[in-house]
Amino acid sequence: MKIPVLALLLILSLETFSQQVDTVNIQPKNxxxxxxxxxxxxTIGGYGEVHYNQPLNQNQSNLGILDAHRLVMxxxxxxxxxxxxxxxxxxxxxxxxxxxxxxxxxxxxxFMNFRAGILLIPMGIINEYHEPTTFNGVERPMIxxxxxxxxxxxxxxxxQGNLISLKSRYQVYLVNGLxxxxxxKALFSGSKALREGRQKGSKAIMLKPALTTKVEFYGVxxxxxxxxxxxxxxxxxxxxxxxxxxxxxxxxxxxxxVNISMLGADVRYNHSGVKITAQLYYTTIANTYExxxxxxxxxxxxxxxxxxxGYYVELAYDIFKPFSKLKYQLMPFVRYETxxxxxxxxxxxxxxxxxxxxxxxxxxxxxITKGAVLKADLQLLKSEADxxxxxxxxxxxxxxx
Length: 401
What we know:
This protein is mainly beta. The protein has a single domain (3-400), classed as Beta Barrel (Porin), CATH 2.40.160. It has five helices and 19 strands. The chain has helices at 3-17, 31-36, 143-146, 247-255, 288-294, and strands at residues 41-56, 65-78, 83-92, 96-109, 112-120, 153-163, 168-176, 179-182, 185-186, 209-220, 223-233, 235-236, 259-271, 274-286, 307-317, 329-344, 356-369, 372-383, 390-400. The strands form two sheets. A 16-stranded antiparallel barrel has the order 1-2-3-4-5-6-7-10-11-13-14-15-16-17-18-19. The protein starts with a helix and ends with a strand. Residues 1-26 have low confidence and may be disordered.
């Protein structure tokens, strides 16, 4: 594991934090934040992206895939300076429709806003800043799929605010938990991790609420530091219509849930055309022994790991930055990331090397105008079980308005 690389970036950032600064670092807003700060009345925004993914294999030919990956429309309404409404409606793969955000925000004071509805879980970077103009690469980083199940949203309520004197902002929400078992099958596994447990605000069930929170510090010029967390017990369909006096059924239901603790840390640096981004997730899962045995199929236990880890480090530079009169950006970048959904396992699970993957992504992001980008990259992917890298060429367009 190359964790020292990320640790070094964190140390350098904290070292910079100790220096005296006078200017507040302002990060780009995502579309929802722009809607919340807009004028009174109706506000419309959105983003979209189209991808082309072409596997490159020396031993066989593969068809490329063209995909209208997503078209998202934001509709917001500012009732007043105190009360706003935000919604995000997503069309995925040109056929699926989802509500990704839908919440009301009410300002309690200058330090605190109340939110309630379908909320984005504030883990990491991409889950909140997933517009195609906000990140490099055609596809989002893989750890924001395999470890944190982006785009991750649930129904809940809580508070968000900006502590200007401390140059920090925070979010804290209670939300419905992930679903771990339903329809006679386990939804968590080593291959898919926690992703299938998202309830997405669609007839979500809840036994106990989960807590999620994030604190960001922007008090150092050009640097944003974030610490995020998610803590909760999953829920299971086996608790529905459960007789309270049935010890056996209660034990079965208890075996179908796990306790999840996920921590995230991220660093963003942006100055003079140089962008450095680093992200780390670490997740521990309790009760996996009971869960994997209970969810066995065909006499073979389920293979959910007891700990997962993922991180990436990315370096990018806008080569047009020295020419300040140009309105374009051309940003070559390189990103190294790795994730392991079997970082730790407990009996009867045997560690699967194919769940430990490394990805190198290098490419270009060309911003032709504010809110419109052309992207191209080459990805090299290899698991611990592989002897060589597989390759994928990705190109795409993205808009955000």
